[in-house]
Amino acid sequence: MAVDPGMVDTVLGTFRGMAGQLKDAGNESDAAKECLAILAKMEALALEMDDLGAWTTKLSTDDYFVDFSTNYGQALAQNTTVDGDSSDEQLMQNTLQAYSDSLTELKKFPGNAHIWPAVEKVIELGKSGLSYPLFLKECEERGLFLGLNSPHAGPTIQYDLYCAEISFRPLDREMYTKQLAAYNALVAKSAFGYPDPVEWEITRQKIEWEYAPRQAQWKAIEDRWDRMLDMVQDWIDSFCSFAPHDARWAGMGGVNSAAQTRKNIERTQECEPGKLKVREDIFQRYFGLGWDDIFSHETFRNQLESGLLFQSDEALQLIRDVYPQMLPGQNPSSDLIARAEAQHSSQGYLRANRVSAADMQPMPFPEFLQERGLIQA
């Protein structure tokens, strides 16, 4: 696995361009070589890691961005055959140009809007007329370099929280709410309004580790009762007149297709009750939950109340009525088969007001930033 190439291009585009400028200028200074080495490390990490947030956080906390920019300024100043003298004035000019170029590239992508202010503050101070040594001193004392190095995670956490809300994931919503509060607390106690990168990374990971077991259990329970409901639905449907024409049991084609379909239907009728009992036993042993517990469990209630369930209320009631009769060697009663036939004919088994995938499609991150007033003119 690797970080999404498109996001890697967005993050490293500016640095690739700066490295290309050094190569094109024939700059062979030690600082230029260090720039190329740093870029290569950032590229390699993008291939080794698969999470964008973890990758960008590592680049920030390990000073890749700052080290590259520092060496880039020194490389331009050291190569006098290309860039003139190596005075403090030239260093100031080169450094400002590097930050200005970076800001220009960042502003091509609105999704980086939450990062712009940190770069703008450095440029503003650099243009104030200070000498290069005093500029570096002021940047350190005002925490501007910390601002560049520190994670600007506030808007991204807000976006994660927004995505969790529109996709009805209560544990994720709770986790991101806690992360946002922790992030804001670190910002509030910082003298410069930026969280310490290492402290934030530890805080973020501790919160994720805290929720990971509960998130895994939530999904495991959801997956298992969802399959159990499907098994009961399949069993009653296999006795209906539409079963031979349903894709769930259709043969693969050819001269024996009808016979294979019949065999598939019989397999469901004969084997599904026993398979359900095995699943129920596992469900009870692993989670302490039985069949009746499904319909009051928080995972089921969340899907029902959010409109995520595929089955209509009528279909769920039919499933619950069929369940007591779903025993090995037993067939469902004719009235239950008739109800299944009627639901299939009218498509009454479908939940009319269920949430669609389009309803849960989040707006792109740049639009989110704009809506929340985080994109600057």
Care to give the gist of this entry?
It contains 17 helices and no strands.
Write the layout of secondary structure elements.
Blueprint: H1 5-24, H2 30-48, H3 52-61, H4 64-78, H5 80-83, H6 88-106, H7 116-126, H8 132-141, H9 144-149, H10 154-166, H11 170-189, H12 197-237, H13 257-287, H14 298-306, H15 313-322, H16 334-346, H17 365-371
Helix pairs in contact: 1-2, 1-4, 1-6, 2-4, 4-6, 6-7, 10-11, 11-12, 12-13, 12-15, 15-16
What this model shows, in words?
With 377 residues, this protein is mainly alpha-helical. It folds into 2 domains: 1-149, no CATH class; 154-377, no CATH class. It is built from 17 helices and no strands. Helix 10 (154-166) packs antiparallel against helix 11 (170-189). Residues 80-85 have low confidence and may be disordered.
Feature tags:
2 domains, 17 helices, 377 residues, mainly alpha, elongated
Share of residues in helices: 55-70%
Rounded mean pLDDT is: 85
Q: CA-to-CA gap between the ends? A: 37 Å
Strand content: under 5%
Number of helix segments?
Answer: 17
Number of DSSP-assigned strands: 0
Number of domains: 2
SSE succession = HHHHHHHHHHHHHHHHH
What's the gyration radius in Å?
30 Å
Low-pLDDT ranges: 80-85
Structural class assignment: mainly alpha
Largest sheet: none
Global geometry: elongated
